[in-house]
Hints:
The chain has 734 residues and is an alpha/beta fold. It has a 7-stranded mixed β-sheet with strand order 7-6-18-17-16-8-9, with helices on both faces. A 6-stranded mixed barrel has the order 23-27-24-26-25-28. It binds iron/sulfur cluster. Iron/sulfur cluster (SF4) is lined by residues 26, 28-29, 31-33, 57, 61-62, 64-65, 196-198.
Amino acid sequence: MLFGRAKxxxxxxxxxxxxxxxxxxCGYCSTGCSIEVGLNEAGKPVSSRGVGGADVNRGKLCLKGxxxxxxxxxxxxxxxxxxxxxxxxxxxxxxxxxxxxxVHDRFREIQEKHGRDSVAIVSTGQMLTExxxxxxxxxxxxxxxxxxxxxxxxxxxxxxxxxxxxxxxxGPPGCYExxxxxxxxxxxxxxLPEQHPIIYWRMxxxxxxxxxxxxxxxxRVTMLAQNADIHLPVTPGTDVVLMNAxxxxxxxxxxxxxxxxxxxxxxxxxxxxxVEKYDPVTASKICGIDExxxxxxxxxxxxxxxxxxxxxxxxxxxxxxSDGVVGINNLALLTGNIGKPxxxxxxxxxxxxxxxxxxxSSCSGLPNHRVLESEQDRKDVAKFWGIDPEFLPKKRGLFxxxxxxxxxxxxxxxxxxxxxxxMSSLPNTARIRKTMEKLEFxxxxxxxxxxxxxxxxxxxxxxxxxAEKEGVMTNTERRVNIVKALxxxxxxxxxxxxxxNRMAERFNKKGKVSFPEHPADIFLEMGELSKGRLxxxxxxxxxxxxxxxxxxxxxxxxxxENGEMPPAGxxxxxxxxxxxxxxxxxxxxxxxxxxxxxxxPDEKFPIWLxxxxxxxxxxxxxxxxxxxxxxxxxxxxxxxxNPDAAHELGIREGEYVRLVSRRSDAIVMAKPTHRVxxxxxxxxxxxxxxxNRLTLGLLxxxxxxxxxxxxxxxxxxxxxQTEAARMSLEMREF
Length: 734
Ligand code: SF4
């Protein structure tokens, strides 16, 4: 195949012998790109390409998506169920019946002895929605523990909490198309080009066709900040102060949208009283942004015809994460920027199906945003599933970040981890290691058998990954898209859905609850539970979703029957005239007093540690660390350090340094760059036994999400560079 000018240095692309292309949705980030995987004559996946007719990515893929087919035969895949009595013994291969019986028997033993909630289940944002729904039914309806959560608490919980507090329900109001209509965009703690490259391309494409100002709020000069019209290098953890000051200016100048506020919101006077305290002069001393810039940005935002805000982990992973989201929503409501094209507050989510977890996993409640605290919701779901409503708890159980302390104290004895790896992803690794050692019984269900958490498993259940399974995922803009099973899991590994259904047979001995086998049937069952709700998917089927390359919810049966083609109605979930989910249909303006409870730099630990993601890698690198085409671009842990700070510490480019926090230390390579200020370093979080050895992880009071981005460290140059290189090398090995 030749590209470029045929006669002069044409680009030659290897013919991989693709005989068939199969449809899927990318399994890494929440952008939700449509992807086709090429199979050769032997049916082996050998290539990936973007789907031209798909609205999300319009033919494009990023560095992760383009190599995604390499996942299937990467190293370390689990191929057999494994079992052992103690975690320090060698695993022994076993068959599925023995492994599943053991899990059932040990969980029931523990529950009988210590109570139903003494077993905890932690899942992921990586599975397919039908799998989440089935696991929720199994957990809530049969196993009966209330200590059930997802690893989405580490990334999206603050967005969920903030949406619920402001609008009465979870669910991002806007969509990517809003970039094409907006007159002003503020990005709070979001580095799109590296974290969500295809959303960045959508934003940039829209901005080139129809210019609008881009304001980036981020302590680092990220790639997005380098593209900004105005960059606000806010002091870590003080976004809420900046938001309050902007609202102070908007109200002082009379720039609020009085008609919209009057028609659609409650709480203006309480909000006004609070933001009165945050005049720009006072606020600038806390948030580090000068008073005139605060005024300029506030006025630019409020005067825009339509203004949009996006955010990611810079807001969510903070002790004020939920308040930060509410602050963004306050700004949007105050200026009438919810429900119109180009006016929205859009949380850019993390994992490919973090949204599916929020909608259908029952982690924090019951399916389709129902809550355990509502008697009606409990009754409706119990009737639908055929269980006793009294079996359901009356309020939600522990968040993931509270489950581990409960293991520490002995309250929880058994743990089932599904496609998540707390030994790598939770703050303060040393503490989590001790916690995992305390478990009486631990089950790890994962597509890789070599995750750090599997060291503590008594039973390992090998699962399929991504397009070895069939089902749907929901992306950042509420688009439900499909993954087709284009190959089989390796060896004896099975799709997660198969594992849940076989487990359900063991907990469901009287056969009172039905567990359909096929994902398309499960999807139709979910549709019945969605009828008439905000997240109504009754108009969708697997077939239609594939044909349309994804459909945004809500999409109702009536719309489908009337021949209204998607995305009818699904682009935005609130209209300009008050359709919020609180009983009176109004959104809440919520005052946000600021209490600075972060760990901040001091004499002993004078440097801010900021952590985050690289474009090449996905989370704990259990996937991308094994794909040469991803890993070779970022093979070892490093810090971005300001060149002046490096000079003062005698550190040169490429030298190894020790980072020391109050928890532990980590050895990394130094990379001087002006992307960080003198009092801050940035450390990618992907590498095991590295960033999370240092993090403290104070929790947001509403969402229980950890503050991964605000802690204090000191830096020491390693005297023996050869030994340091060896130690750093160890960190990248699995
Ligand atoms: Fe996959 Fe996200 Fe990259 Fe799209 S932007 S190809 S969804 S990792």
